Amino acid sequence: MLFRKNEKRTTSDIGKSAEDKAADYLIKQGFNIIDRNFSAKTGEIDLIALNNLTLVFVEVKFRKSAQFGQPYETVTRNKQQKIIRTAQTYLQKHKKHANKACRFDIISILNNDITWLKHAFE
């Protein structure tokens, strides 16, 4: 279970727990998590992972219920552009990854159910 009932959690705690769950999920799929919460002026990337020779930038979204839609629906075009610009900054700072193939995924967690959207945007 991701959260205990009636347990008071901050938004930061909830986000970290969701990212931990997403990272564990990706590791079980054979990914190597190489960075977490990479931050730049342009934004933040929750998880950065290697899958074979592909560098994967992962946005993690969590919701307790689908009352207001699926978590992945909050990754708007504007948010995608911020993630892409932040990924470009990451590649400039980490030259050893500059020539790797890259992709953008979303891990959407609804309560405790994970939906993994590979190649979610370009």
Radius of gyration: 14 Å
Strand order of the largest sheet: 1-2-3-4-5
- Structural class call reads alpha+beta
Stretches where pLDDT is under 50 for at least 5 consecutive residues are none
Mean pLDDT across all amino acids? 91
In total, the number of strands is 5
CATH class: Alpha Beta
Q: How many domains comprise the coordinates?
A: 1
Q: Quickly count the helices.
A: 2
Question: What does this protein look like?
Answer:
With 122 residues, this protein is an alpha+beta fold. The chain has one domain (11-121): Trna Endonuclease, Chain: A, domain 1 (3-Layer(aba) Sandwich). Helix content is 29%, strand content 39%. It has two helices and five strands, in the order αβββαββ. The chain has helices spanning 11-28, 77-93, and strands spanning 32-40, 43-51, 54-63, 101-110, 113-121. Strands 1-2-3-4-5 form a five-stranded mixed sheet. It is globular, with a radius of gyration of 14 Å. The protein starts with 10 loop residues before the first helix and ends with a strand. The model has no long low-confidence stretch (mean pLDDT 91).
